[in-house]
Amino acid sequence: MNNETHAGAALAEAGPVPELLGQETGAVTQMEEPDISDWSKRGYQLLRENRTGEAQEYFRKILEIDEYNNYALVGLGDATRKRGAYREAVVYYSRCLEYHPGNNYALFGLADCYKTLNQYHKAIEIWEQYLLHDDRNITVLTRVADAYRKVRDFKHSQEVYLKVLDMESANPYAIIGLGHLHYDFKEYQEALMYWQKMMDINRENVDIRVLTSIGNCHRKLKTFEEGIRYFEIALKRDPGNFYALFGLADCYRGMNQPHRSLEYWNRILDQDPRNKVILTRAGDAYRTLKDFDCAVDYYQRALNIEFDTYAVLGLALVAKAQNRYAEAVESLRRLIEQSPKNHRLYMELADCWYRKGEKHLAMETLGEFQKQGIRNAKISELLERYRN
């Protein structure tokens, strides 16, 4: 069953729609001797043709005669859902279920609305009711697993995806879902196994999102050269693909090749010049290359869009690299006030003090971080180094 399958559609397919008396476009008022069955058939036929407004007219007319008619209530739910009015659709599906508990099509539509509204717990509850009547519906099972994944319930999500694979071993939605699930929980090797399985199933015409997902697993595992290979294949398919461009830039960044990463950061900025995350990443690359004027320009462009911690940090690091320690210290202190648990800020501030010959202030800075009760190996190592 797909999203738009419902009882009325099945009814409409049972036989030809009788000719309407009056005009072909047929406002309901043109018909003589109204027949609820014919109106229902006509409404669902119009839904299939995406003529939702006309379809609603028929369903509402049915409700004037039979206010609890399940076909009309589900039809209105489907019509409003098609138009993107999900909250209104919820009302119709709920009213149907109030008078016709267990109606599969109302359950499916209602759950789909809740999912689209990001109310995943409610969607799960409704889909579980659906599965009481049809526990082998793969479409519903994959949606339940997706919803569990969205609420970060790893155990139940995995169980349902694997149940689907027991029923259909090459089901792409379950395989892709398991890839996303393991990726979300930072289990990159396991995620890679599922994404690779998708490659094996459809190597000649694999979805570009599978390619970028495999690339992202390698990026997270720091096997950057392997990641680059998949991102480049994706980029050949779609030269403007954001995820492929970002993946390539970040892989080259991880390989300490800022000049290569800049090529891809700037290609993203050609498409999206106000992306402040990419502006700060490009600024970092220029700073690493000691092109401080360009670095400052990119950081300022990011800050002209809105405040960004990493752009301010970048400017502070440029000041530190140019021995303007007082300016760097002032910026880092302000950032620590806003992000008191960011260990990197303390390390950079401590380094400024140390370079100024103020070792006791460097140690005090690191001690302030530790007073918060946060254990951080890098802070501890740097403090030990200063002590020795």
Put the structure in a nutshell.
The protein is mainly α.
Largest sheet: none
Distance between the termini: 69 Å
Radius of gyration: 29 Å
Note the overall shape.
elongated
CATH homologous superfamily classification of the domain at 1-135: Tetratricopeptide repeat domain
In the CATH hierarchy, the architecture of the domain at 1-135 is Alpha Horseshoe
- Uncertain segments are 1-33
Strand content: under 5%
Mean pLDDT: 90
State the helicity in percent bands.
Answer: over 70%
**What is the CATH topology classification name of the domain at 1-135?**
Serine Threonine Protein Phosphatase 5, Tetratricopeptide repeat
**SS element count, helices:** 22
The ordered string of helix (H) and strand (E) elements is: HHHHHHHHHHHHHHHHHHHHHH
CATH class of the domain at 1-135: Mainly Alpha
Q: Please tally the β strands and state the result.
A: 0
Structural class: mainly alpha
